[in-house]
Amino acid sequence: MLKRVVLMLKGAAFGLSNIVPGMTGGAVLIILGIYEQFVDAVGNLATDRERRREYILFLATLGIGAAVAMVAFARAVTWLLDLRPALILFFFKGLLLGTVPSLLKLNSEMRLTALRVVAALIGVAVVVAFKALERYGLSASLTAEPRSLPGMAYLFAVAFAAGGANITPGISGAYLFLLGGTYGPIMEALSALGRLTIRWEIILPTGLGAALGIIAFAKLIDTALKRAPAVTGYAILGLVLGSVYGLWPSEGVSEHPLLLALCLVAGLAVPLLMGRRVADGAPSPRSRAGLQPEAERDATA
Questions:
Q1: Ramachandran class of 181: left when φ > 0, alpha when ψ lies in -120 to 50, beta otherwise
Q2: Which has the closest alpha carbon to 213: 171, 164, 176?
Q3: pLDDT one-digit tens code per residue, 153-192
Q4: Residue ranges per structural domain of the chain
């Protein structure tokens, strides 16, 4: 029972990452130590009959926590980010940096090779590219009337991309909602749920699109982790390191440097103090599947 409560709280943290621009659900899952378990469950739910009940129980518990947090804190998150955005973003930077040691232990053989360095650089480049889009303000022109059929189709398309992005470390799903011009209406609809008002024209296409995006990207990432674990690990590392740059406040920083440093250190301490689940002996999805720890075909190894 306690494990279910803890998992639900982790789901709440994941849910909050879905509504905080700049924060990625994938990075949060890494911080919480359940990233591989999540992509394994989502990616193999339809195909692995033996473990389907285990997957459903895991995802349902996580999903309940995420849904409750998104509805309960939608208004508070937007208020806090408007009030002290730099301090919050520096705390997130610390959280991301604190996941680096765990990422370097994602596979038993993580020595540097040319291919893995390239994978990490590509990960960094992807996040830098998204940050460049933000600076050029490309989010302004892609809005649509949500009550119309084209509007709902647009909401679905943006949500599909955002759902997939949100489980990819380094890319913020909420930022893609901002980029697509749908963040405001979605946050208003989530806040309305807390008042028992359901805006179906927004909730339905957004929820369906995000769910399908998560499933598609989870299957892709799960396959990559199984076939090329170290290269995938370095690509994820690049996305995380790129996010440290990507989380730099767009409006600049006016807070006192000491406050920023304290927020950074506080964020850094969280994943480091959470310990290493590998040391506790919980087998990873790859080892449970009977895969070798270094099964990838690395031509430069």
A1: left
A2: 164
A3: 888 988 898 888 788 765 667 767 766 667 778 888 888 8
A4: 2-288
